[in-house]
Amino acid sequence: MPRSTAWIIGGGSGIGEAAAWALALADKHVIVSGRRQVELDRVVERVRAAGGSASAAVLDVGDASAVRATADVIAHRHGPVGTLVYSAGTNVRRRFWDSVQPVDIENVMDANLHGAVRAIHAVLPAMRARREGRIVLVSSWAAWRFSPGAGPAYSASKAALGVLAETLNAAEGRGGVTATHLCPGEVATDILDTRPEPPSAEARGLMLRPDDLGEAIAWLAGLPAHVCVNELVVTPAANSSYA
């Protein structure tokens, strides 16, 4: 039986890389996309060295035509995308209203939200036709509970992913296509370095690891088609967001 295809956007590092690894272990062919070829190649080599199946597709999610073209190439070479994981995301250091600029907010919204819309739009018709598809939108605790430290651009963009998931499930769930708004608490990834005051090594040691989320994504992707997890909130036991 041929492997089903999983497309991980933002798959070159962090949660996306962990998702690629976990989905490959679940016997899916994974395509990792992102802007940096070197990072993608490293993930592909790691997966293949462990006996998994993977390939890379360089992509800038800000380019709508490139997102569509990449989805078409994936479908032609590997079959239609059965699982879409949107893990691309960013924030800016100067993120608060006293310093953030409109262009900064536009850039964060484009990477975190508009790119997700482009990706969903590219894979949804084939999922709908097959009456099967799983979409995981990697969001944030900042989308689930107000988080002052995240800033308006990040919080707004991630909260909007929850709306995308809800509307997808309302419109497509009966047809076999479901979406999950995945809201992790603090995860020890490189995005922490964009904070005005990046956390210490000690603080990072208390956070979730990317592999924790990779396993959660693989679990979501492996659920029966009649099961829909609308929203999943995962935090470290030492959840500093309560502080």
From TrEMBL:
One MF term in the entry's GO annotations: oxidoreductase activity
Record family assignment: Belongs to the short-chain dehydrogenases/reductases (SDR) family.
CDD domains named in the record: SDR_c
Source organism of the structure: Microbacterium enclense
Keyword Oxidoreductase applies: yes
Taxonomic classification: Bacteria, Bacillati, Actinomycetota, Actinomycetes, Micrococcales
Domain of life from the UniProt record: Bacteria
This protein's name: SDR family oxidoreductase
Annotated keywords: Oxidoreductase
